[in-house]
Structure formats: structure tokens, C-alpha cells
Amino acid sequence: MHPELILRPQQMKQADGLTVASGIPGIELMRRAGRAVAEAAAKMLMKEAHVVIAAGPGQNGGDGFVVAALLAGQGYRISLGLLGRVEQLSGDAVLAARDWKGPVVPIDSLAFDEADLIVDALFGTGLARDLEGVARIAVERMNASGKPILAVDLSSGIDGDTGQVRGVAVKANRTITFAARKPCHLLMPGRAYCGDVEIADIGIARETLEATSGRLFANTPSLWLDKLPRPELSSHKYDRGHTLVLSGGATRTGAARLAARAALRTGSGLVTVASPPEALGVNAAHLTAIMLRGCDGPEGLHHILQDERLNSLVLGPALGVHSGTRAMVAVAAHARRSLVLDADALTSFEGLATEVHQAFRHAPTVLTPHDGEFMRLFKGHPDIIDPESKIERAHRAAAYTGAVLVLKGPDTVIAAPDGRAAINANGTPYLGTAGSGDTLCGIIAGLMAQGLPAFEAACAGVWIHGEAGASFGPGLIAEDLAELIPGVLRKLLT
Ligand SMILES: NC(=O)C1=CN([C@@H]2O[C@H](COP(=O)(O)OP(=O)(O)OC[C@H]3O[C@@H](n4cnc5c(N)ncnc54)[C@H](OP(=O)(O)O)[C@@H]3O)[C@@H](O)[C@H]2O)[C@@H](O)CC1
Ligand SMILES: Nc1ncnc2c1ncn2[C@@H]1O[C@H](COP(=O)(O)OP(=O)(O)O)[C@@H](O)[C@H]1O
Ligand SMILES: [K+]
């Protein structure tokens, strides 16, 4: 099974160049691209419908000319408007424009509200700056028309690399992209602007895509399914790992239990909650299959970790923001077990990121910040927090700390220090509920306890968490999530 590759705009350009060099002319690629869009358009249309095509000055516009010629040949009524003049076109767009025998009008004279379908071929991967003037007005008029919009490659106005809106962007219902998805199809807000995305094969070889892609993937099971643990006939609980989750004080114990239960449901053979003495009673009252031990601060943790069988740790949820938590992190990192750090374990290092510089390179470690925790942790490190691309931010943080970074949100990005990265897209807004992140920590730790490497555990954990949430929908609370994990695993493993 091939993992799904994602190509950044620059890489797509390279793949395009290599394909042309291998003997397929650029205009042929453009014709295939246009044909895929025309086929998708025809599926959205009644016979003799009116299609309004907005073509831009580059090769995305060229695709628009191909679509116009093909749909006109099938009997659809076409209006084509161009941003700029035909004489200013360059490259393969010149050839594509020659195939279009109908009129070309200025883009500002197109009547979008008379369309049955709008084809957005204004800008694709070559968008270079914010939309202004005529281009901006055209996009605003398209959006205001309320008509269905089919985007060529990506929604015009969306930055292909970062998914950010450059001034204004087309609200497309559907997008046909070519050869592979681009980051903007998965990253927010681009994902929302592109609508349903279909990938059309235009004959760029898999090897070419692999050679240019730089190891960025969509987080689909093909990325990690073969590594997902399956217990052997002869295996016993200790073969499936032992996860330790640190609990907060007497009034802050729920987060640890959520993580612990998720680790157990994910298949960790044993799970123990390590609790401050004053919280032992409340933890004991709520735990059954999960074991409980007293743990008095960093020294207590050091003592517990003398048991080598404890191979995976969760540290952070509700632990408290203070130097004691930093000391616990130091003990955990020193112990070289698999480690998931979240919430207070990250916030306790607010503005102190230098203390975690390369701290986690010796053992499989996963950091799971949401945007707020990320900003706090890397405060004072503009090289890490400033890049517009979420992938770049996650990459840099991973390289800095030596840990796998899970930068959470509707478009969670998982990045490894070795340069691999994945973008997740199967979640649901219903996951935005108290304790949801604690559950995610437990899933990832439970997978690492069973031997999954950190990057694969993080990717699989985020996907399983997303799938569990999506399978429940409205009314989801964090307590439900662990109970939904078996259903997700069953589908993956059988
Ligand atoms: N790669 C492939 O394999 C294949 C690619 N294909 C297609 O090519 C597309 C990429 O084409 P592309 O590189 O020509 O870029 P594109 O998106 O048309 O825009 C560039 C033009 O827009 C202009 N411009 C930029 N920003 C602007 C702004 N804010 N406001 C105004 N103008 C602005 C810019 O002008 P300039 O910056 O030079 O002033 C330039 O003229 C790709 O998305 C896909 O559809 C397919 O045919 C199949 C094979
Ligand atoms: N709109 C959304 N779509 C998909 N996933 C979401 C969305 N909002 C939040 N999530 C996910 O829900 C989880 C929330 O975690 P977190 O913010 O740490 O919550 P808490 O601290 O309450 O546990 C993360 O895994 C995040 O990716
Ligand atoms: K477009």
C-alpha cells in the first residue's frame, strides 16, 4: 500500500518539469488536466447548461481554456473571461487558448450570477501575492453569486503551500487537483475553501512524485497500518507494554484517568496511574483494570521508573504549571522510555524552550501542543513560531527538540525530527471538548507501549482519535472516546 504523498507547489513544478523532460509535452499534461476538470463539470451539469469560466494569466488559466473547448464541444454554453489579455499569455497556455474558438471577454464583464456552474481557473499553485483590484473583485463577485463553483487545482486566492487566504479566496464546492494533493487541500482554512477535493491522474509517474515529494504525507492508514500492533497467539500482557500516566493533585485527577483508559483500550497490556499521595483516594475510587501507585514528585517518579517494564509514559495533563513539572519531565527524559508530553508539561517551559533543546533525541518522544501551548513553549523563538506554514512550524519544533511534534487543531500536523510529516484530516469539530487531548495522549502512549515508533504512533493515534470522534458526532464527551477506540481498531485490524 502506498502512503498518500502531498506535494508542495515548488515540488509539483519540479515533478512537472521531470515529466516533460521524460518526453510528455507540457501541453499534453495541460490537456489531461483540463479533461479531468471538464469531466467533473459535466457530472455537475444538466444538458446545455451555462458554464462561466474565469481564466487567469498563467497555466491555471490555460487549463481553463482546455475546459472551455471540451465543454463547448459537448454542447454546453460557455462564457470565458480572462484576467489580462490573450497576447500576454505564455507557455502552454498560449497553445491551450488557440484551441478555444469562442469569444474571450474581460473578466469584469462576466455575469457569474447567470451561470449554472462557475469554473475557477484564475490562479493555482503559482499565486505569488495577495489578490487586489480586478482579480479581487472577480473573486468577490463569484462568491456573491451563490452559484456552484468548481476550482481548477485549488481555490484561487489560497496559498498552495500554507493554505492561507491571500486577501480573498474563492469558496469552491469542489476542486480537481492533479497528480497529488497540495498542502492547502488539507491545511485550514484552505481545506474549507477547496471543498471536496478529487485527485486526477495526469500521467505523472509515482516514482517522479516520490522523488520530489520530500516525505510529506496525508495521514491515512497506509502510512502506518503495517506497523499497527497485532497480539500474537502466544503473547501475554507484558509483551504489550506497560504505560504509566502521571496524575495531578486531588482536584485534578480526571485528565490522567482519561489518558490511562485510552492507553488500555488501545492495547497497552498494563496501565498504571502514578498519583500524588493526597490524590490516591480519589483515583482509587475510580480505577478498576488500571493500577495505581503513589508517586511523590520527581524523586517518586525516578523510583517508580526503576521498574524497566514501564516502557511508555504520559506526562502533563493537569500536572500543574511549575518547576516541579519541569523536574518530572527531566526525570522522564533521562529515563529514556517512550514519552508523551502534553498540556502542563509543555506550558511549564513557557519561554524556556532552550531547556528542551535536543532534550528528547535519545528516546521516542511525542509532544502534543495545541496552538496556544506551542506559542507559549517556543516564545522568543521566532524562527519556530513565525513561519506561515504550519508544516514548517512543526518541522522546526521537531528538529529543535528532537521529538515528534503533534501540532493539534482541525488540521493536526505531525512532524518528525528526520523530516517526515503528515497532515491529518479525518477529525471532527466535536473533538473540541474538554479532555479530548488527554485521550489522544493515552492513545499515542498506548501504541508506543506496544512498540510502535514515535512518528507512526503519533500519526496512528491522531487518526484513531479523529475516527473515534467522527463516528460519534454530536454530544461527544471525552469519556466516550476511549470506548469508541475498539470499534476503530476492529475496522483497521480485521
Ligand atoms: N505543474 C503541473 O504539473 C501542471 C500544472 N498545471 C496548471 O498550472 C498551474 C500553475 O501554473 P502557473 O505556475 O503558471 O501559476 P498560476 O497559478 O496560473 O498563476 C501564475 C500567474 O498568475 C499571476 N499572478 C500570481 N499572483 C497574482 C496575483 N495575486 N494577482 C494577479 N496575478 C497574479 C502570475 O503573474 P506574475 O506573478 O508573473 O505577475 C502568473 O501569470 C497549476 O495550478 C495547474 O492548474 C496543469 O496545466 C497541469 C500540469
Ligand atoms: N475542529 C476540529 N476538527 C478536528 N479536530 C479538532 C477540532 N478541534 C479540536 N480538535 C482536536 O481535539 C483535540 C483537542 O485537544 P486539546 O485542545 O488539548 O483539548 P483538551 O485540553 O481539552 O483535552 C485535539 O486532538 C484537536 O486536534
Ligand atoms: K483555481
Automatic annotation (TrEMBL):
Classification via PROSITE patterns: YJEF_C_3, YJEF_N
Which keywords does UniProt give here? Answer: ATP-binding, Isomerase, Kinase, Lyase, Metal-binding, Multifunctional enzyme, NAD, NADP, Nucleotide-binding, Potassium, Transferase
Molecular function terms in GO for this entry?
ADP-dependent NAD(P)H-hydrate dehydratase activity; ATP binding; kinase activity; metal ion binding; NAD(P)HX epimerase activity
Entry's Gene Ontology BP terms: metabolite repair; nicotinamide nucleotide metabolic process
The organism's place on the tree of life at top rank: Bacteria
Task: Identify the stretch annotated as signal peptide in this record.
Answer: none
Give binding positions for K(+). N60, D120, S156
Report quaternary structure and partners.
Homotetramer.
Return the similarity comment: In the C-terminal section; belongs to the NnrD/CARKD family.
**What is the recorded name of this protein?**
Bifunctional NAD(P)H-hydrate repair enzyme
Q: Which gene encodes it?
A: nnrD
